[in-house]
Specification:
alpha+beta; two-stranded antiparallel sheet; 13% helix; six-stranded mixed beta sheet; globular; 27% strand
């Protein structure tokens, strides 16, 4: 694997292609997890799980945050599994959010994202449960939509 470059650690904006070693934090919308580069800027990382340490390749950057894909898992999370879809990987199709997590972890991660957004956007602090769904047939096995439930009444 290539050496980790350091522009982000020197207070500069991370450049596309740059490798960063990151400790991955909470999940975010769209299959990303939140990490921070050495300068403290937010890096949204795909193909990673909370609690992991990864070597991530920057795919895009703004003055406020960067986006990256986990290129190497240095310390895997206990919930990490081999994705059933061969395209669920860095550089793959990008349509298989969380396939690298166990099914129970996928539901927890999705519930965490919804709970965080309800708290941040609507000021609601409520429990959220994502119910399990049938794994489907061989033709539909990658479709993993589920219903989230919360005791919120409108």
């Amino acid at each position: 694997m290539e050496a980790v470059t350091g522009a982000a650690g020197r207070g500069q904006q991370a450049a596309p292609g740059e490798l960063l070693e990151l400790d991955v934090g909470e999940p975010a919308h769209g299959g990303w997890c939140v990490a921070r580069d050495p300068a403290g800027r937010v890096v949204f990382v795909r193909h990673a799980l909370p609690g992991e340490r990864v070597r991530a390749r920057v795919t895009g950057s703004t003055t406020r945050f960067a986006r990256a894909e986990a290129a190497e898992i240095l310390r895997p999370a206990p919930d990490r599994v081999e994705p059933p879809c061969p395209h669920a990987r860095p550089g793959g199709c990008g349509g298989c959010d969380w396939q690298h997590a166990s099914l129970a972890a996928q539901r927890r991660l999705k519930a965490d994202v919804i709970r965080h957004q309800l708290r941040r956007i609507a000021g609601l602090d409520t429990a959220v449960t994502v119910e399990p769904v049938s794994p489907g047939t061989a033709r539909t096995r990658w479709w993993r939509s589920a219903t989230a439930r919360s005791p919120i009444r409108w």
